[in-house]
Structure formats: structure tokens, C-alpha cells
Task: inverse folding
């Protein structure tokens, strides 16, 4: 059974908010991030490879999800990554 | 590199020092045993009589003999008497469970155990229970000849306290025991050693102090307060484990604004002491506070006194004379001063191997150097700065992260009472640094993480774990692996 895509998207949004490298402060971006009906590009969030690594660490520590940095890089947006992870995670 | 200074040229068999002080000053006091003074004359005579009694019981040089004797004066006499006849003394501490004592005795091939308790029998080991009062009063033993003993013969087996696993066994001679503590403050010293004589530290610090002609004070600090003992016996020097020094400082701080023990030197070692605690001890306990770095395998290596606390409170201080120290890289190549690497030390008094552990011997004794497993750098004026234990070091994405650097930063955050960094195992990253925190109510984890990130960058902890207390061993060392093990699985 797959994890719910919406739950995964919410989890990723929390991970993005906690990211110590790409600190998102723009209210419009934060609103976008928190709206399950919309999507948000990692590029717009200011994610670089360091920020992706921190998201990997956060996902492992907080959710037990192991994912490599390049796997995040292959997905351009939060929703795309959420869909991919939801399908992958048991 | 400085040439090796040989300090031990004048050392002798330890009991000869007792005889020496007995003859040069017959009134001088060797031990104050729970308030009762025992002169060097009496102590030296007691050692001779007990040694003669043991000889008559068939003990021969080279025998490894366990000691489970609680009363400190009797334990001291037994240790000295065994060494005097060339036996190898081994503490089998009464506070260890019988199973652990039996294992230790078997590893050391002990032939018997000398005890002062009825229920200290160990399976497979004969038990000898001297009537101490009768032996010490028996003048007929004075005529018995005692054999000559070499100061370089094996005399004692100490256990090196690891934070995990079984203890390593360090055999040492009386010469090594003598030199363990390095030259010290001259002059009359009344010394209270706040470790049981059944423990390594309690034993060698006591033997060292007596061999310098100092007075040893034995008292039960559960029963009599430190203040009372210091006043009653005119104690001038106290050795305490770091956790006890800190507890003492916090208690003294509550009771007044000036040092509670202004005339007493306070010595500690065995675990790091933070800048904050150093300041507190100097201000609340005594203006003379010394921190030592050393190891059972080699004795004391450095000392940080008040001058070091003032200028470099993150240093363990200067080398003692007779000690060589260098840092090397992972391949054993010597590094220039200032570069961080594995600490290696050597001295005339160092052990050269462990007794029954070739693997650990090969790892920790290399080319005449002892490598304790600490990582550090030699700084200005030859001061040593330790980063942490090489086996505590975390490697995250090939970045070396030391718990000590994280803890130093986190301790500066308001509301963090105590903390210990440790690694979460990760197949992708190696180890992810995390921080266990004993915190005041209301501490904001996210704000603490951000504070650390600002100061440590990639070496910052990624997660805060709240705990009620940090697990520690008897010396006060934090058991990081226990924290990591108790949290092995990340939260789902």
C-alpha cells in the first residue's frame, strides 16, 4: 500500500520549512507550499544541492525515509517528489 | 621535539620510600585513617610484618594476587606488602559483582584473593583472610628476611576503563607506578583522594602521594562532609572526579560568594571540564584548580592550572616533564604542531602492551608510542587542545564531526543544562549528528538547532533529543553509544 500523496506532500512541506540552508521566508511562497492543491518548484524555493542534502537528512531523521540527493534533484517540484515518494515508499 | 627527560632516576621500590620517610622524620604522618593518624614508621613496619606473614603463607614472587579489601588502610598495607615480596597485586573491587571479579581474576591468572569480608569467595580461587590486627601486632615477624625486589618487575595490574566492552589490563612495575603522577608541588601536602582505593585512580594516586612523603587522608565522605574532613585533618589537596567537582562547585556557589576551600588545591581528570565549570570551580571552590589529561597506560600527560583556565579554557594544558607528545594522521605520519590528528604520547613510565589483548595492543601501542584514541592539536606554548575521542568522532558525508565541538556550542545556549552529541547511523550519510539535551522547561528545539547551525555549519546537529539525564560511567564520562543505542530507530 502506498503512502497517501497528500500526506507525503505535507511531510515534504514541513521538511522544506525546517531546511537550515534554503530558508523560505516569502509569505507567497509559504502559502504556495502549504496549499495541497498547488505546486511549488524547488528552484523557486532556492534549493541547491546542500539544501537537498539537508532535506534527505530531515526525511531520514523525522520520517525514516531514505532518499539520495540526486533522487530529489530528479524532481523539479514538491508535488512531483511527493508523488514519486508516495509510490516508492512501502 | 623535546628530548625525553628521565624523571625516575631516583625512584626505588615503593615501600623503600615509606622506610625513607620513617627514618628521616619519625614523627611524620603517612595516613590519617578516619581521623586516626598513622605515622610512616608504623606504616612501614606494618608493610614489613604483613609481607613476612604472606611469605610464610607460601606466596612467591610473580604470583598474581587479588585484593578484595574494603578498609582503605588495610588495602594499602596489602598492596604494599604484596609488592614488597614481588607479587603482582590486583584489585578485585568489592563494588563489582562477583561474576565480574571472577572474570578479571581468571584473565589475570590470579592464584588467590586476599579479603577482609566473609562473603568474598570466588569460584576456583583460594581465599586468604589475614587477621590484620594480629599480624600488625606480631613483633616476631620483624626478624623474617624479605627478598630483594626489582623496581622494574611487574607489580600491579590496573584495568583501563573503556566506555564499552571489557576492561583492558595494564601491567605495571613499581617504577611506573612511582612515575605515573609526575613531579609535583613540593612541601608538606595532606591529600584526600576522592576515589576508592579499590579503584585504579584511588590506588595509584594514593601510592604516588605516599611515595612523595605526603599524608593520605582516608574518610568516608558519605558519612563526614568534605568541609569537616578538610578542617579536621588540615587537608591541602583534594582529588575528585569531574562530576563530583562540578557538584561541589554548584553546592559551594549556593552557600556564598567566595571560594569555600581557599587553601586547598583541587585536582581532577578523566573527563573534559567545560570553561563554565572551570570558572565556577575557581570562583566557588578554590583558586587553585588543576585539570589533568592522562591515561592508565601512561599516567598523567598534561595539567591545566588557573593560568590555562584563564587564557585557554578549552585546553587540557601543558605537558609534564618527561612526556613526549605528537599528533599523527590516520596513517601514523607525524603532523606539524597546530594540526589536528591522533594524539600519541610516550614516556619512561608508559606501559608497552595490554596483558591479554594483542588486537588492542597493536591498535594502541605503535612504534614506542601510546595512542589513547584522542584527537587533538598542539597549540600555542605547547598546550594541548583535545577535540574528542577518535571513536566518538562522527563521519557525515566524509566530514569529521566531534561531539565536543557541538557540545561546546550548544552549552552556550540559554536553557541547555547538559548535552551530549552523538550520531544517528545512516546508510546514506554515515552518521548524522544529533544532540541529547537536558533542558530547562520551554527550550525551543528549532531555535537551538538554528543557533548551532549558525556556529557549526555542516557540523551542526540535525536533531534535538530531550533526555532527563545523560548516561555516564563512574568517572563521569558520557556514554554516547548508550544514547545512540536507545534511539537507534528514527521516529516514524
Result:
Amino acid at each position: 500500500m502506498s503512502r497517501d500523496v497528500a500526506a507525503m506532500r505535507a511531510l515534504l512541506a514541513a521538511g522544506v520549512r525546517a531546511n537550515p540552508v534554503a530558508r523560505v521566508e516569502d509569505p507567497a511562497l509559504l502559502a504556495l507550499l502549504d496549499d495541497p492543491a498547488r505546486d511549488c518548484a524547488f528552484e523557486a524555493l532556492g534549493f541547491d544541492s546542500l539544501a537537498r542534502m539537508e532535506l534527505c537528512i530531515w526525511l531520514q531523521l523525522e520520517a525514516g525515509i531514505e532518499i539520495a540527493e540526486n533522487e530529489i534533484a530528479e524532481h523539479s517540484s514538491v508535488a512531483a517528489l511527493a508523488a514519486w515518494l508516495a509510490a516508492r515508499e512501502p | 621535539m623535546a628530548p625525553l627527560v628521565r624523571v625516575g632516576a631516583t625512584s626505588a621500590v615503593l615501600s623503600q620510600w615509606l622506610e625513607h620517610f620513617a627514618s628521616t622524620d619519625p614523627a611524620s604522618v603517612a595516613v590519617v585513617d578516619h581521623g586516626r593518624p598513622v605515622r610512616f614508621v608504623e606504616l612501614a613496619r606494618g608493610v614489613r610484618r604483613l609481607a613476612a606473614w604472606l611469605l610464610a603463607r607460601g606466596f612467591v614472587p610473580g604470583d598474581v594476587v587479588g585484593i578484595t579489601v574494603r578498609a582503605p588502610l588495610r588495602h594499602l598495607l596489602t598492596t604494599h606488602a604484596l609488592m614488597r615480596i614481588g607479587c603482582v597485586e590486583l584489585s578485585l573491587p568489592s563494588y563489582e559483582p562477583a561474576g565480574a571479579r571472577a572474570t578479571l581474576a581468571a584473565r589475570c591468572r590470579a592464584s588467590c584473593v586476599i579479603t577482609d569480608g566473609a562473603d568474598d569467595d570466588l569460584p576456583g580461587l583460594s581465599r586468604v583472610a589475614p587477621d590484620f590486627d594480629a599480624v600488625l601486632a606480631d613483633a616476631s615477624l620483624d626478624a623474617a628476611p624479605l627478598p630483594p625486589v626489582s623496581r622494574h618487575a611487574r607489580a600491579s595490574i590496573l584495568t583501563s576503563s573503556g566506555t564499552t566492552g571489557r576492561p583492558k589490563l595494564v601491567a605495571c612495575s613499581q617504577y611506573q607506578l612511582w612515575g605515573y603522577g609526575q613531579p609535583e608541588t613540593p612541601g608538606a601536602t595532606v591529600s584526600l583522594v576522592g576515589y576508592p582505593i579499590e579503584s585504579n585512580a584511588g590506588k595509584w594516586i594514593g601510592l604516588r602521594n605516599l611515595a612523595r612523603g605526603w599524608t593520605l587522608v582516608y574518610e568516608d565522605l558519605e558519612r563526614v562532609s568534605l568541609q569537616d574532613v578538610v578542617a579536621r585533618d588540615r587537608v591541602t589537596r583534594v582529588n575528585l572526579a569531574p562530576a563530583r567537582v562540578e557538584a561541589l562547585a554548584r553546592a559551594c556557589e549556593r552557600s556564598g560568594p567566595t571560594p569555600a576551600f581557599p587553601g586547598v588545591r583541587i585536582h581532577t581528570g578523566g573527563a573534559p571540564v567545560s570553561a563554565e565549570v572551570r570558572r565556577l570551580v575557581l570562583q566557588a571552590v578554590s583558586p587553585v584548580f588543576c585539570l589533568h589529561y592522562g591515561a592508565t597506560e601512561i599516567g598523567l600527560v598534561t595539567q591545566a592550572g588557573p593560568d590555562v583556565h584563564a587564557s585557554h579554557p578549552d585546553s587540557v594544558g601543558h605537558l609534564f616533564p618527561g612526556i613526549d607528545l605528537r599528533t599523527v594522521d590516520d596513517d601514523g605520519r607525524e603532523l606539524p604542531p597546530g594540526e589536528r590528528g591522533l594524539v600519541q604520547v610516550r614516556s619512561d613510565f608508559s606501559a608497552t602492551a595490554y596483558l591479554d589483548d594483542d588486537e588492542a595492543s597493536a591498535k594502541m601501542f605503535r612504534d614506542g608510542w601510546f595512542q589513547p584514541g584522542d584527537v587533538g592539536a598542539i597549540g600555542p606554548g605547547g598546550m594541548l587542545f583535545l577535540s574528542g575521542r577518535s571513536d566518538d568522532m562522527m563521519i557525515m558525508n566524509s566530514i569529521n564531526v566531534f561531539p565536543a565541538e557541538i557540545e561546546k556550542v550548544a552549552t552556550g545556549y540559554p536553557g541547555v543544562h547538559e548535552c551530549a552529541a552523538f550520531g544517528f547511523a545512516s546508510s546514506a550519510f554515515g552518521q548524522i549528528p544529533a544532540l541529547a539535551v537536558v533542558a530547562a522547561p520551554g527550550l525551543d528545539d528549532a531555535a537551538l538547532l538554528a543557533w548551532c547551525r549558525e556556529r557549526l555549519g555542516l557540523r551542526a546537529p540535525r536533531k534535538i533529543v530531550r533526555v532527563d539525564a545523560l548516561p555516564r560511567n563512574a568517572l563521569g564520562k558520557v556514554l554516547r553509544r548508550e544514547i545512540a543505542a536507545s534511539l537507534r530507530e528514527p521516529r516514524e
Summary: Chain B touches chain A at residues 397, 424, 426-429, 432, 434, 446, 449-450, 453, 460, 462-463, 489-492 (CB under 8 Å). The CA atoms of residues 253 and 437 of chain B lie 23 Å apart. The mean pLDDT of chain B is 90.
